[in-house]
Every structure is written in C-alpha cells, then in structure tokens.
Amino acid sequence: MCPVHLAQGICILIGGSSEVPTQAKVDAVNKLAEKFQKSTIVITTNYSGLPVDEMTELRRALREAGVEYRVINREYALRSLAADERAAPAVNRIVIDGPTGVAFGYGEPTEPAKALSGFIRSTRSALTILGSEMDGRAYPVPTLNV
User: Fold this and answer.
1) What is the total count of domains within the chain?
2) Where are the transmembrane segments (predicted)?
3) What's the per-residue H, E or C state across the chain?
C-alpha cells in the first residue's frame, strides 16, 4: 500500500522506506516537477570541487542570463521527472549523478548553454556539463557545443 500518491500512480517512498513523507518533502518534489514542466531546456552539471564564492558567482552570472540554477536532491529529481508526463521518457536519459546542479532555462533554449559554457571558459571553472534535456529528448555533452 502506498502512503502518498503524487500523480497518476506515482507513489512516494522517501529514503527507501514506507514512511509517510513529510509535507515539506512532497512540496519539494512538486515544486521541482513544476520547474521541469515549465522549462524549455534543462542542463545538468557536476559542481563537485567548486568553492562557495565560485558557486555564488555562477548563480549570479546565470541569473543575469535569465537562467535558474538549483542544486538538487537526486531522489527528489527522479520523482519529479516521473511525475512529469512530458519528461517521463527522459527519466532514464537525463544525467543526474553525484553532486548535481540543474540549470533551468525558460526562454530561448540556447541561452543557458551559452551562459554555462561562457562561465566555465571565462573562470576556468571545475564545473562540468553532464547533459541536457529539451522537448523530451536527451542530449549528450558533445552536442552542446556553443
């Protein structure tokens, strides 16, 4: 028996147990699902090794380009993608591995990729782009040349 249903048969089991998730966890999954639904492009990154000041600079640069950058919880992200019927086929293809940050673009799909690659080039950042998803299709890193 599933304790909490998120959407159309999606059952939430937080932490691998059958405990009833807190409302805050359910809200976090729903909020993340909404971001995936509204975005025109999603780019996943590995931010491992980035100092706090560089992460702050990254967020500022992306915000100026109209891109939202979030550090995500892997389990919440997978549940959010599963709840999004449009993104469900991309669940197995989008790269969410290790310390993952996600750039959500809501306008022109090329802007987030340009902003991220420009930041990496100009700061010689350790940030790496893992992959992207746009219109239900996954794109590996080599196709993100901007």
Assistant:
1) 1
2) none
3) CCCCECCCCCECCHHHCCCCCCHHHHHHHHHHHHHHHHCCEEEEEECCCCCHHHHHHHHHHHHHCCEEEEECCHHHHHHHHHHCCCCHHHCCCCCCCCCEEEEEECCCCHHHHHHHHHHHHHHCCCCEEEEEEECCEEEEHHHHCC
